[in-house]
Amino acid sequence: MPDPCVICTTAITRSNPGITCRGPCRKLFHLKCAKLPSTIADVPQNAGLTWNCEKCLNSGSESVLSITQFDQLLQKMNMLSNDLSQVKSQNCEIVKSLQFFSDKIDDFSKKMETFDDTVKTVDVIQNDIQKLRAENVQLRTDIEWLQQQGRLLNSEIRGFPEQKNENLIDIVISIAKSINCIVNKNDIQTAHRVSPYNRDNDVKDPKTCRGIVVSFSNMKIKNSFMNAVRLNNKSSNIITADQIDTTLENRKIFISDHLSPANKFLHKKTRDFCKNNNFQFCWIKDSKIFVRKNTTSRIIQVINESTIDKLLN
To answer: Where is the PHD-type domain (predicted)?
Structure first.
């Protein structure tokens, strides 16, 4: 038979649990009779909880856990549980934040990959542009060369006044005769007037007297004619229109190789450079432009504007 409570002398059962005093008396008490909370019954026996009755407490026995202390312990445990819940909640927030930053990093990485691809594409485009520029320069050079090649047999006469019903071939023959060069009609393929180019903007200028372009039948005749022109210039003999036709005014005539528009522009820039930098000589031979600083310096062929830029170096 179960032991009775020392206070109410009724049995201690599951429905009416009790507790044993750990003091000297070692007696049993109902939790209600000992004025203890019913929750003590749920505390495991191996939890280390000890209780002394009032008599044993007053007898000065070994200190054990009081009801107040137990309540305080429960409060602390509840507080600790709440703190743990808060920590868990904070951990969840931290995990969410970490996931957010992880997603941002992934997004940034994808954007960086896209940026890298864009940079590579730009590099490819820049390389293509450089190649196209180089090809364009080469094509322009080739076109200008072809344009000049088509003028190899040509000479250009500037300053000769225009007349009605003029015979340009006869005029060319008369000019050749005036500089001691024999040219026959069979030596000339064609002769025609062309509007001069405004060298500042490379367009035809209708206000100026049109020049005469003569195309010889072969290079031998053309070279013979141009050599005679150079010899005449060296002797300081000025060719004028009235020497060819007495009915014309005393007007200077200029004769040179028939240059392409690009070479005409280059020739003008070269002459301006020579004038501004004390280069004594600038001339054209076989449709090529040459310069020389003085009689003792070397002869330089001007191929393009880059050549002009290097002349002072």
So the answer is: 2-59
